[in-house]
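Hi R.,

Here's the input for the hydroxy diiron-OXO moiety complex you asked about:
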Amino acid sequence: MLSEKMNDALNVQANRELYSSYLYLSMSYHFESVNMKGFAHWMRLQAGEELVHTMKMLDYVAGKGGKARMLAVEAPRFTWDSPLQAFQHVWDHERVVTGLIKTLVKVAEEELDEETTEFLQWYIKEQVEEEESSDSVLSKVKAAGNDKGALEAADRLLGQRSFRFPRGFEIFPK
Ligand code: OFO
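And here is the predicted structure with hydroxy diiron-OXO moiety in place:
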């Protein structure tokens, strides 16, 4: 059984994961609107991945007999001045999320909740991957600079991203 404090903290983090999904979906539609289809595709898959993070956390809460509550989701911004600004935003955002997950692990430890501490290790590992992936895309966009051809090449490259949704979490990208 989850303590009330742990239940609340997991619900808040699930909300931040859903916000991440909303943010990346916003970036996806922004890139669609400026005809950068590859960047839009990358963000759309990223939004799907964040939705998996959300549901995995809420499934855990519900599976432990806790209460999965849907909290209000903050509205993300909907426009960025350049691909570099958007991908820098992704990079910054993922570092914030890593900090939130680490704080959540501390709550689980303080609550002497070993099962939740163990469960959260998946998110700790996931954040290592999320940081690496945001590093990698940011460096590609930075390398392209303001060169239109290089940005188009980066757009094509990111458009090749694939992501297999785990069983039970399938959603259908375009
Ligand atoms: Fe859920 O990893 Fe990004 O935010």
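One thing worth noting: DSSP finds six helices and no strands in the chain.

Cheers,
M.
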